[in-house]
Amino acid sequence: MVFSSYQFIFIFLPLTYLAFLMAHRLAGWHGAVHVLAAASLAFYAMWGWKLFIILLVSLAFNFVMGRQIAARQEKSKTGRGLMLAGIFVNLTLLGYLKYTNFFIDVVNQAAGTGFNHVALLMPVGVSFYTFIQIGYLIDAYNGQLIRSNFSRYIVFGAFFPCVTAGPLVMQREIMQQLDGRQDSAFDLRRLVTGLTMFGMGLFKKVALADTIAPYANTVFDGVASGGAANFATSWIGATCYALQLYFDFSGYCDMALGAAFIFGICLPLNFDSPFKASNISDFWRRWHMTMTRFFTNYIYTGLAMGGMRAAMTRGGGRAEKFLRTAAIPSVVTFFIAGVWHGAGWTMVVYGLVHGLAIAICLGWREFAKVRLPYVAGWALTMSVVISALVIFRSPDLGTAGTLLANMWGLGNLGLAGAVAPAQGLHIEDAVSMIVLFGAVVLLLPNTQQILHKDWISSDSKPAVAALEAGLLAWRPALASASVMALAYTVSFTTMGSGGTFLYYQF
What we know:
single chain; 506 residues; mainly alpha; 2 domains
């Protein structure tokens, strides 16, 4: 069951909200939290009982392990051993479920063996809820744990708006909101604001992302099946996929924040107009923001500090210091981030491309005296982002190589002629959509800017939000209600043909 389904919108969400209100009336927030925990488990169980068992075991194990770590003296040797053991168990389970068959392929290719793939389950959102709980164990070791019962822990580790594809929440972000609440469960303005945010995300997913998806699929699937492509169709396919993923993930993030806000819980922002970024570092501060935060806090920072100590010990020059404290940590961090996204050489290369791009960006800041104008920086950033997304979307490196060669002048430079992927690809329609959707991305404020008067995130509100929204700022009025009614109507009439969110596969 996905957010953009009739079952979720007309059955699961209303029934959960009614149960939430009744529980709060009878037992206060203690009862309301129990309902949210039960609803979250029920939501995930609909993906399959075996997947539900894996989630439940993961939650129980990490809840107990976190308590055991917190019971020790802060940063004690015993606590450190328990933390490392807990992380090892989590990564072992994730590695077995997600990477076993990739490892078998690597061994077969390297050693010429013929091991068969293992039949494995692939729990939806396993990377997300595993890393959320690894962060919980680290917080326990650092003495930052907020004690809770198991129901509150379930809301933190498996809250239904974010269990399948994020955001990657931190335990204090959720636990602090559940601790000692005295407000009412029902708040009309909060309900309207949450449904508005949810509706904006739903429209992005089904009316924008799913509409442009066929143009991207035609090109990528055509090349993957052995067809030819030229310069124009390769760029069209790549740009259409970039916009598809943009609106798909942006829509999911809006729907997650909106659904959570209905129940009085604010989630962190996970998407902030990344295609407006003028450099690759800024892009990753805006795209999948909580993933960037997680890898920065728990991987990059440790590597950079270790590199700093090594550079100070060796007494190396400026270039060596930069390599140890910025370049190498960036490449290693994004290599891990690429592998985290999925098992395959495409994900490895995708991570390395972004790691190298970040290292070059940081090096340019460190050593170059010239600062690029915004337009030049934006064009360079988007060329890297779109090219890397070709690798991200392609089923194999061969497909990615063909498309990238065409895009960058190493392949078929023809602008016309019958090519296999272009059969059924209406180029004029695709280009029109690219122009229209691109204008939406670059010229309009994002959803949190539109809703800046009713801030729905656990992050602090930037002062610029009010300025950038302008006349499009949302307010509870007839005009806003009419626009949202139209958006919901369009979404309901088209969402039956859509699929799951793209990030569900990670």
